[in-house]
Write a structure and sequence with these properties.
By secondary structure, the chain is an alpha+beta fold. The protein is built from ten helices and ten strands. The radius of gyration is 20 Å and the shape is globular.
Length: 332
């Protein structure tokens, strides 16, 4: 008779959620950068807390095995709090690269990861227009993981233009010419190794998308129970009730797709996760805004923050998936 497996009991996720509650209030998602130049004191304190807690080392060998079972929970928590700092790229892309290539950290990174956030993008195929990064101030690092004739490279960019408004309510965008990189570091990796490197990043970011969409939908469900019209809570009307139920089912389907991706490091379910989870998240975000009616379009209301984060993250992940398709067949 086989033993009944013990239920999974997360240990890292509760601590991470508590840190975000204390260090990253939702208001921070509106304005992480002061005066368009430096991180706000509150955002800097949050980044320091992430570093001191070891969260910037999630992708390194010492924590990877322990963190991977809870990675989706961590990503979902970051989405619920609308984390405006690039934890995923810093901890799950740059940190493992710096661990594998120690000279990269010593001689290439603009700042140590614990000192300043690292905003990054992934480009393995052709892209049109300027390259865009989340703007995190002049001290932040701006990096591109890219494919080159000889394999793969990490490029560093220096801010050379003023940031502009982006889709995210609180994060501006740094737009740079693709030929304006200030330095380049060759990476002795093949396509398969790059896919393996990016698997935790993908899981975290899709979970972030799920968490943001779920939080927005929960706000809508609560509002539908409070807002009254024609003498009844609007959640009692079938048009509202069915819309919320359909959005919940779409997100539930997305969670299953995310679990499949989480369990398969080879990235087999990636295209399915992209289609199912992003479409479900967009649907939930739209429904959540619509249920709020006119107040949902007000800058003062938080629901618009979730809508914008969902659409922005979905677009970013669509780009990453397109770039990963350029690795098939893997580079030698």
């Amino acid at each position: 008779m086989s033993a009944v497996p013990e239920p999974f009991s997360p240990m890292l996720a509760p601590a991470f959620e508590r840190l975000l509650r204390e260090q990253h209030p939702l208001a921070l998602a509106r304005a992480p950068v002061d005066s368009g130049i430096t991180l706000s004191a509150q955002a800097s304190a949050c980044w320091s807390a992430l570093a001191e807690g070891g969260w910037l080392e999630l992708g390194t060998h010492s924590l990877r095995v322990e963190a991977m079972p809870e990675l989706a929970l961590l990503g979902e928590a970051s989405g619920r709090s609308l984390l405006c700092l690039p934890l995923a790229f810093s901890a799950l892309v740059l940190a493992p690269l710096a661990e594998r290539f120690p000279a990269l950290a010593a001689d290439f990174l603009a700042e140590p990861l614990e000192a300043a956030p690292a905003s990054g993008r992934i480009d393995f195929g052709s892209t049109a227009g300027p390259l865009l990064w989340d703007w995190l101030g002049e001290r932040a690092g701006y990096y591109q993981l890219a494919r080159a004739d000889s394999g793969f490279v990490l490029r560093r960019y220096a801010p050379s233009s003023a940031p502009v408004d982006g889709l995210d309510a609180g994060l501006s965008v740094l737009a740079l010419d693709r030929d304006s990189s200030s330095a380049e570091w060759p990476l002795a990796l093949n396509g398969t190794e790059v896919q393996q490197l990016l698997h935790p990043f993908l899981v975290f970011q899709y979970a972030h998308l799920l968490g943001a969409a779920l939080s927005g939908l929960e706000l809508a469900v609560a509002y539908a129970g409070e807002r009254r019209q024609f003498g009844r809570a609007i959640g009692e009307f079938q048009a509202v009730k069915h819309a919320l139920a359909n959005a919940w089912v779409a997100l539930d389907n997305g969670r299953y797709a995310l679990e499949a991706l989480h369990q398969q490091p080879d990235g087999g379910p990636l295209q399915i996760t992209q289609r199912v989870l992003t479409s479900g998240a967009r649907l939930a975000a739209r429904v959540a805004l619509q249920v709020h009616g006119a107040i949902g379009f007000a800058w003062e209301h938080d629901i618009q923050l979730y809508l914008k984060r969902v659409y922005k993250t979905a677009a970013q992940m669509e780009h990453v998936v397109q770039q990963l398709a350029a690795l098939d067949p893997p580079a030698a």
